[in-house]
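Hi everyone, sorry if this is the wrong subforum. Our group has a chain we'd like a structural model of before ordering constructs, and none of us has done structure prediction before. Sequence below.
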Amino acid sequence: MASPMYRQIAEQLRERIESRELQPGERLPTELDLRDEFGASRNTVRDAIKLLTSLGLVETRPGQGTFVVKRSAPYITTLTSNTQRAPGDVAVAGEGTTSTTEVLGGEKVIPSNPEPQVEIQKASEMVAAQLEILEGELVISRNQRRLIDGAPWSLQTSFYPRKLAVQGAERLGFADNIPEGAVRYLTDVLGLRQVGYRDWIKVRAPETTEAVFFNLPQDGRVSVFEVFRTAFDQGGKPMRLTVTVMPTDRNQFVVNVGDLPAPSASEDPQPTEPDA
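Answer:
Right subforum, don't worry. Here is the predicted structure as tokens:
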């Protein structure tokens, strides 16, 4: 059975996009031109465009037309620590650590870490559960909008029990980066050593502020990853919760388990600790 006409039109346009006959950022032929080319009705052409839009291949700009989506090379983040380290010796890169690198289309780059927005707030039910504290107990939140080459990469908020600042880690409450990384800082001033972390990853539609920051379509067709990382100290107690939001159209993750051979240069994302 032959495919419906709108699917046939969408498939031919998709082939032109994938072959680069239609370049990223280029405007598609007008609706009238497509109707003439394929001998199709207005509704059929519109259905074909809707299908390409749902596949993330094109986007319609009011008053301008329909354009081929510009696809960014993915940012690859390694969620696991370096398996070559001694047991318990977890990567300690964190907020403000300039050595934190990602792979962008095979090229290693350094994310920029603008100064965080810092607040003292009451722990929500979720934050309290992850940090094993009482709901409503005071926590310090450190929020950052992180960029790569000026392009939005992630939104990140880390939560720390306020008692850590009272015990001597005062810089957690300052609206400044911690150049050596918050994890290293807590080790240096309080003797708290991060020995491990647990990641919980969700996929959901972006909130309005997230869609604006990441320049995502407002219709929710591009989702975001939400990574909840709970870090534990040497006593088995949670010391930090970091929530990172990353758009699915430009982010990929790698998880390494076991004794693995060294990756080739083209697939060598560095271990990262995306923590504010």
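For your construct planning: The mean pLDDT is 84. The radius of gyration is 23 Å.
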